[in-house]
Amino acid sequence: MRRLLVPLLLAMFACGSRADRPPITLTPPSPTLTESAPTNAPAPKIESATPAPEATAILNVSQFPNPDDYEWKEIVGGLTRPVDLKSAMDGSGRLFVVEKYGAIRILQDGQLLDQPFLDIAERVNESGNEMGLLGLAFHPNFAENGYFYVNYTGAGGNSRVSRFTANGNFADPSSEKILLTVDQPYENHNGGAVAFGPDGYLYLSFGDGGSQGDPNRNGQNVNALLGKILRIDVNRGDPYSIPADNPFGNEVWAYGLRNPWRISFDRATGDLWIGDVGQNQYEEIDYLPAGSPGGANFGWSEMEGFHDYNGEAKPGLLLPVVEYSHQFGCSVTGGYVYRGAMPEWNGVYFYGDYCSGKVWGIIFADGQWNSQALFDTGLSVTSFGEDEAGELYLLNDYSGGVYRLTKK
Hints:
Elements: E1 24-26, E2 32-34, E3 45-47, E4 70-76, E5 82-87, E6 95-99, E7 103-108, E8 111-112, E9 118-119, E10 133-138, H1 142-145, E11 147-153, E12 159-167, E13 170-171, E14 177-182, E15 194-196, E16 202-206, E17 228-232, E18 252-255, E19 260-265, E20 272-276, E21 282-288, E22 296-297, E23 303-304, E24 307-308, E25 322-325, E26 332-333, E27 349-353, E28 358-365, E29 368-376, E30 381-386, E31 392-396, E32 402-407
Parallel strand pairs: 18-22
Antiparallel strand pairs: 1-29, 2-3, 4-32, 5-6, 6-7, 7-8, 7-9, 10-11, 11-12, 12-13, 12-14, 15-16, 16-17, 17-18, 19-20, 20-21, 21-25, 23-24, 26-27, 27-28, 28-29, 30-31, 31-32
């Protein structure tokens, strides 16, 4: 796991009070199809509006509530390296917390149930720090069919996407149906996010395969599944089918990603948000508005954030909404757009950094993207999550804590 702003403007995050940290204005992406395409596939690419180099800090931060009036309140501790939190959206109010070593635990009425929902530790290879049971998503019809999906590293460190079946508070380990296996050349950059989109398709994030600098050039190769967001139809085919409008005739939906550790869809708009972990200098948040066609190229490894990396950038790249340098952290953790019961936060996208524990917010207001430093949590932020009501949660790695955003 490990790119906010034009470098000239990064000082907003350095130190000081909220008044010293005004949001940064960037030009939002407005994707349109272009004729440019990667040399190894005749498919459309998406062109973005490059953030305006003259963008400057603005002093009006009224779009954001005062973070001093809020806190991340621990609701439970003692989990073992939690890395994902999901709701089944089945009316039960349960929260499901993924533990990296291979279990899924249930939080119900603020209590951690003793018996795991699922335990597949014997199948999970977590020998590397970025390996393990990494992501979870529940089928939109989970209340009827009991299906849920996980992404984990298994034998040989290769990635598996599997479906399991649950009944009540227990899932049957023997019900595993492996949908997809992806070879991993190295033990890092596995991605691991799993999410259903508003179109009913299952979206999967995979890193570029690891090592450093994308040595196999997977990011820009649309025939490889690494360095991508994949999109598959789990309701048709065996074990799945490829949607007819996938841009390259395979599972690939978007490409040019280094390690998209966490992705989410805004439950109100359907927009896709991606936290893509950077290389040595920059972390980034990427964005696709709902209804965008497939084929977006986010630039890696030609670009790291807004910056050239392997050669010069070519036309048609979709650049980040926001980047930040390693002066402010080392590994971005993508989050969610808040849609809970505190209307003052409505529409704010939250994201954080694993190393620094900082949490930022992004909103689109007055025709511009605005980003604001909000919290210095001091936590190792592995993931965010949301419950049925749209309230927001944060996971802390080594202490095993689950925290909820609340008003003081």
